[in-house]
Structures are given as C-alpha cells and as structure tokens.
C-alpha cells in the first residue's frame, strides 16, 4: 500500500478537480476513479460563504483533499496561501505549486525549494510540483518533503512521459514517494509511469476534458492498477537486440 | 526595447497588404504548424482563411478545453463614473456629449456592490472615463480600500496611469488592468481622439509596458472593432501580446473583442465586423496563443453569445450595466453604450451549463494579492506612511474572521 507521511492510500491515482464541465461530472469521475486524494485549487474555492459547490461535491469519507497553491508566483505567496488553505480545508497536506510562468505553468525550482523548507518547519505534509530534476528531488528530501511530483510534460498538454529518462533516475534514487504529475494524457501513459515504478500518478485534464469523464476515470483506474501490478510482478528485461542465431562467442563452448 | 520602439519599425500599409496577400497554401501551412508564429496569425486572420473557419473552430475548441477545461469565468463591470475630459467620437461619455455627469460616492458604491454580490459575482471590473481632477488615483485607492474585501478579484478599466500609480493600485489589491489601444493606426487614432489626454497615442501605446513593470498580475489588450481595418489592427494587437508575453513573462494576458455599439451622440462604425469575421478572429487568437484569456462582453447579441461559448472564449460578462449606478443607485443615468445581451446573470450561468460548461465565479484568491511584487523596504518609508501602512494592516482583515493567523 502507498504510504505518504502517515497516511496509507489504497489508490495510486490522484485526481485534479479543475476543468470539469460541472461539479457533478467531477464528483462522478472522482468516485469512478477510486481516488482517495484529490487536489483542490485554493483560488477556486470560496472560503467565505461556506457553501462552496466544488467542496460540497467532494464530501465523501474516503476522499482526502490536497489543497494546491496554484496562483502563487514565489515562496512568500505560496507559504501564505498554504496557511490559508490549512485553516480553511482543515488539512496540513499541501500540493505546493509555484509557477511564475503563466504560459507553460512550469515550476520554479528555487522558490519551490525555499517554500518546502519553510513549510516543512511549519508542519506541513508537502507534495511539491517540480520539473523532472533528480538533483532537486534530493534537495527537497533533505529539507523534509513528503513526496515529489515531477512532471511528465507541461500541465495540460497530454503529451505523456516526455521526461522519461529523468523520471527513471528520480524513481531509482528517491527515498520519498514519486508521483508523476502533469502531461499524462491517456491511460497508457499512466500505466507506463506505474510500470517504471512510480508510486502514483496525478491526472486532471485527460479525465476532465474527455467526452465521458466518468468512463475515462475508470479507464485510468484500471491502467494504474495494471501498471502497478506489472511493476510488482517484475517486468522482463528489455533486450537491446534479438538473440543471435549464430553467436559470435559460440566457439568458446566447443 | 519597449514596444513603442518595436512599433516604430513597422509599417501599417505593408502589414495590411501582406495579410491580404495570404493564400490558401499559407493558411494550410499555418493550420498544420504546431508552434504558430505571427506570420501564421496573419494567415489565419486573412480573407484566405475564411473557407477554413470550421476547421479553425474545431481546433480552437480543443485547444481551449485542453488549457482551460470546460469552464467559463463570469465577471461584471461596475461603472464608477461617466465624467470624462476626452473627446472620443465613438463613445457616449465623450466630453462634448452634453449629459449629466456622475461619479459614485462611497455609499453608492456599497449599494452597487451589495447588489452584485447578491447575484454571486466574485470577479468585478471597475470602469471609468478619464477625469483626472476627480477620478484619479486617490479616488481609485479609496474605492479599493472600500471594496477590496468584497471580491476575490478586482480589475480596472480606467484612464492610462503612470508606472508608480499602477504600483500603488497593485498594492491596493488591483489584480488586472485592461487598456485597449482602440486602433494601432496612428493617424486614424488622432482623428477619433481629437482632444483630451487620450489623444496622446504614444502614452497609450506605452501603457501595457508600464503595467508590466509595475507587476500587475494580468493585462488586458484589445482594439475597438469598427474603427479601422480589423485584420491589420488585430495583427498589431497580436504583435503587442507577443512582445508583452516575452518581456513580462510572469504576467497573464487577456484579449477582448469589443465591437462598436450604438450610443448617444456617436458616429457610425467605419468598418462593420460581421459575426463570421469575429469568430474567425477569436479562433485565430486561440490557434496563435493557447494560454491567452479571451473575453466576450454583453455588447454581443444573445444569438452570438448562445453559440460562442465552445469557440475559444474563456471569460464572459453577464447582467451588465454600463452607466454609473446602473444596477441600483441610478438606473437611468446615461450609459457608455447600449448593451445587446440583456439577460440576467442567472440566465447566462444557465446558458453556460447548457453548453456543458461550468460557470466559474471564483478563480483567484485575495491572499495571492497581499504580498507585494516589489515591496519597498521599511527603512525607505517615512514614519508617516509607515504608520498609515500599519493602520491599514490592522484595519483591513485580509480574509474572513474564520481564519485567525493570516499574518503568520
């Protein structure tokens, strides 16, 4: 079972809740996915009226909220937003997102490291969204991150695991769970990430924008389970070449 | 380099003829490209692209959903004043238009705010004319202090200001600044704006740069469709957008498509932009730029707005009034232009849902606006303003009382 901080999660599929055509559609997809951890953008939630539509559709016992700081451009803004999110959503879990670049929404490694260090001291369980940078992952471990969330491709692009070689290094080296976030556009991408040994994946756009989000959520659930199962069962090594029928070193056996 | 210098290297007539010279092959090349350039944008807004409109619309739909999801953000304008010292021959607030002028008082503003909040609005656009003796930065700042905690997101569409003035308003909680060039044709601009501070073409052209330097979160660009050749003007606007995005890379951008509407005492449009052409323009922007916000106001008709939602737009206004006090205080005061889609916000939210989209009321949080972009160090401030700042910090709670440790 996947364990992050002190929480055990049966599902290795995390969902984003933005971009859906309606809150009801979002709820159906989340339920179909079996996900137990869903991200919620602080900026989308109306904390003042206490009748927020998005949150109302996520009130299920098995669903944990993971507030994100999308909108923050630096560590200072993110730390501030994190504290509001903790109070309002009553969780010290946080998806740390600092993307000062509104075009590709690429994460700022320097500010992310700074904010992780500060938030860890304040007792947050931090899951930072980062580029697939193995050294940054180690630096984040050093300052107390609970997991790392390297991107497969820029947010919302559905391009799949463009950072494959670096994800493999991160998975190999990591002492904290690795969750592949962003860019996963189809169930096969998710299965691939799980086969590599990722601990979980986070999907939003591919499900939210599908013609039938609920069915797509189910497809992702199956892909994540099957990818994980394959990883645990031990995939055969990939051969670089076919076994030669006339081996060059056969004479040594003569 | 600032945009003005880039602009000086261009030539209106050359650009216009290059757009009209685009061929079907150019359009097909633009459509096939995965990273589209300004030359591709020219092809997509050219007459040669008209037969490809459905294909453009399909791609615009897909790109927009990929980036923004199936969501449409709702906002509404709140006109604070119709005082104006400019003569703009197309505007109902023009100085030479003999109407009763009005600027809302604090009490009136709060009445309008209460009405808009009751209707669910959390994003608001403050609009004024240009009357620098009465509707100035101290007035805007006072308004911001008055209403900052009432909305998640406050934008302004007021006269162009200096960089440090934008800094003050940014600090006061203004999220975005909308300032449309109206037309990038310098001589034509002079003819439409014969008198007043607005007649200074270059000062207006420099405005987005000043906003960018002041750290404004989002900058809205646009032209007034109807003044000059819309294709050439739109190219300049796209050029401006492209320049801004590369230079002020932490800033978000939006584009609006105001088509000239009837108003009291104004001229007829010089150029009529039809529905088909407006759709082409919207789609061309989306194909050129996947992340720019595209906004459609109540200037557009019910019929157009019923169908435009899946075509690439991300933001819509609803239930709008374009006169100061128009919601509650003084519904009969003179409006800037006649709105076309008069349906209530409830009806527009339903329209959005009927299109399979979620109507988003809140997509920002004040907490992100409370840290300053370039905070002056406390040592640099004189004791009086330091005191004022402390009072402000104490007087204005940042978020609802439910949350205690906002100042950690």
TrEMBL record, chain A:
GO terms for cellular component: cytoplasm. SUPFAM superfamilies: ThiG-like (SSF110399). It catalyses: [ThiS sulfur-carrier protein]-C-terminal-Gly-aminoethanethioate + 2-iminoacetate + 1-deoxy-D-xylulose 5-phosphate = [ThiS sulfur-carrier protein]-C-terminal Gly-Gly + 2-[(2R,5Z)-2-carboxy-4-methylthiazol-5(2H)-ylidene]ethyl phosphate + 2 H2O + H(+). 1-deoxy-D-xylulose 5-phosphate binds at residues 156, 182-183, 204-205. It is found in: Cytoplasm. Pathway: Cofactor biosynthesis; thiamine diphosphate biosynthesis. Its EC number is 2.8.1.10. Residues 3-247 form the Thiazole synthase ThiG domain. Keywords: Cytoplasm, Schiff base, Thiamine biosynthesis, Transferase. GO terms for molecular function: thiazole synthase activity. Pfam families: ThiG. The active site is at 95 (schiff-base intermediate with dxp). It is an enzyme of class 2 (transferase). It comes from the Bacteria. One of its GO terms (biological process) is thiamine diphosphate biosynthetic process. PANTHER family: THIAZOLE SYNTHASE. Belongs to the ThiG family. Catalyzes the rearrangement of 1-deoxy-D-xylulose 5-phosphate (DXP) to produce the thiazole phosphate moiety of thiamine. Sulfur is provided by the thiocarboxylate moiety of the carrier protein ThiS. In vitro, sulfur can be provided by H(2)S. Homotetramer. Forms heterodimers with either ThiH or ThiS. This is Thiazole synthase. The gene is thiG.
TrEMBL record, chain B:
Coiled coil: none annotated. Residues 70-289 form the Radical SAM core domain. InterPro entries: Aldolase_TIM, BATS_dom, Elp3/MiaA/NifB-like_rSAM, rSAM, rSAM_sf, ThiH, ThiH/NoCL/HydG-like. The lineage of its organism: Bacteria, Pseudomonadati, Bacteroidota, Flavobacteriia, Flavobacteriales. It comes from the Bacteria. This is 2-iminoacetate synthase ThiH. One of its GO terms (molecular function) is catalytic activity. Its cofactor is [4Fe-4S] cluster; [2Fe-2S] cluster. GO terms for biological process: thiamine biosynthetic process. Keywords: 4Fe-4S, Iron, Iron-sulfur, Metal-binding, S-adenosyl-L-methionine. The gene is thiH.
């Amino acid at each position: 079972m996947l364990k992050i901080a002190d929480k055990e999660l049966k599902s290795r599929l995390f969902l984003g809740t933005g971009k859906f055509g309606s809150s009801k559609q979002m709820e159906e997809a989340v339920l179909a996915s079996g996900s137990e951890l869903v991200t919620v953008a602080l900026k989308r939630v109306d904390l003042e009226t206490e009748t927020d539509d998005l949150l109302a559709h996520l009130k299920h016992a098995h669903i944990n909220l993971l507030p994100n700081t999308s909108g923050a451009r630096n560590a200072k803004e993110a730390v501030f937003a994190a504290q509001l999110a903790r109070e309002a959503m009553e969780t010290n879990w946080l998806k740390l997102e600092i993307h000062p670049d509104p075009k590709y929404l690429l994460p700022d490694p320097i500010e992310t490291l700074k904010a992780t260090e500060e938030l860890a001291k304040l007792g947050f369980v931090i899951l930072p969204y980062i580029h697939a940078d193995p050294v940054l992952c180690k630096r984040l471990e050093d300052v107390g991150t609970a997991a790392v969330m390297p991107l497969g491709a820029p947010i919302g692009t559905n391009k799949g695991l463009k950072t494959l070689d670096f994800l493999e290094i991160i998975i190999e080296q990591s002492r904290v769970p690795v969750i592949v976030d962003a860019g996963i556009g189809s169930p096969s991408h998710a299965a691939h990430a799980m086969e590599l040994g990722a601990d979980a994946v986070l999907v939003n756009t591919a499900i939210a924008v599908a013609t039938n989000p609920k069915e797509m959520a189910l497809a992702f659930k199956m892909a994540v389970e099957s990818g994980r199962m394959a990883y645990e069962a031990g995939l055969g090594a990939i051969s670089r070449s076919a076994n030669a029928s006339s081996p060059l070193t056969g004479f040594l056996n003569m | 380099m600032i945009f003005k210098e880039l602009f000086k290297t261009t030539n209106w007539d050359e650009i216009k003829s290059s757009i009209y010279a685009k061929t079907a092959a150019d359009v097909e090349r633009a459509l096939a490209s995965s990273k589209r350039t300004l030359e591709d944008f020219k092809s997509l807004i050219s007459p040669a692209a008209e037969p490809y409109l459905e294909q453009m619309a399909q791609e615009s739909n897909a790109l927009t959903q990929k980036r923004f999801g199936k969501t449409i953000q709702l906002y509404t304008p709140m006109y604070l004043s119709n005082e104006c010292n400019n003569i703009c021959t197309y505007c109902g607030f023009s100085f030479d238009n003999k109407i009763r002028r009005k600027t809302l008082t604090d009490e009136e503003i709060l009445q309008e705010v209460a009405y808009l909040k009751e209707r669910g609005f959390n994003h608001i656009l403050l609009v004024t004319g240009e009357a620098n003796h009465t509707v100035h930065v101290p007035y805007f700042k006072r308004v911001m202090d008055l209403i900052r905690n009432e909305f998640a997101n406050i934008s302004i569409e007021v006269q162009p200001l200096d960089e440090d003035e934008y800094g003050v308003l940014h600090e006061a909680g203004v999220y975005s600044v909308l300032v449309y060039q109206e037309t990038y044709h310098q001589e034509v601009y002079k003819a439409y704006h014969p008198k007043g501070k607005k007649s200074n073409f270059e000062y207006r052209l420099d405005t987005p740069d000043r906003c960018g330097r002041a750290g404004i979160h989002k900058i809205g660009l646009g032209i007034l469709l109807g003044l000059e050749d819309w294709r050439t003007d739109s190219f300049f606007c796209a050029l401006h957008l492209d320049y801004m995005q590369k230079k002020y890379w932490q800033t978000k951008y939006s584009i609006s498509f105001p088509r000239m509407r009837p108003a009291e005492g104004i001229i007829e449009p010089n150029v009529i932009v039809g529905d088909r052409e407006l759709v082409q323009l919207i789609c061309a922007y989306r194909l050129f730029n996947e992340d720019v916000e595209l906004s459609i106001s109540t200037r557009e008709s019910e019929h157009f707005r019923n169908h435009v939602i899946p075509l690439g737009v991300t933001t819509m206004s609803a239930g709008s009034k374009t006169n100061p006090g128009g919601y509650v205080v003084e519904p009969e005061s003179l409006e800037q232009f006649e709105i076309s889609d008069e349906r209530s916000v409830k009806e527009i939210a339903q329209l959005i849902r009927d299109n399979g989209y979620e109507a988003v009321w809140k997509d920002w949080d004040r907490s992100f606006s409370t840290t300053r972009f370039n905070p002056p160090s406390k040592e640099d401030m004189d004791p009086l303003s330091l005191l004022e700042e402390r009072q402000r910090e104490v007087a204005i709670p940042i978020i609802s009382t439910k949350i205690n440790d906002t100042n950690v």
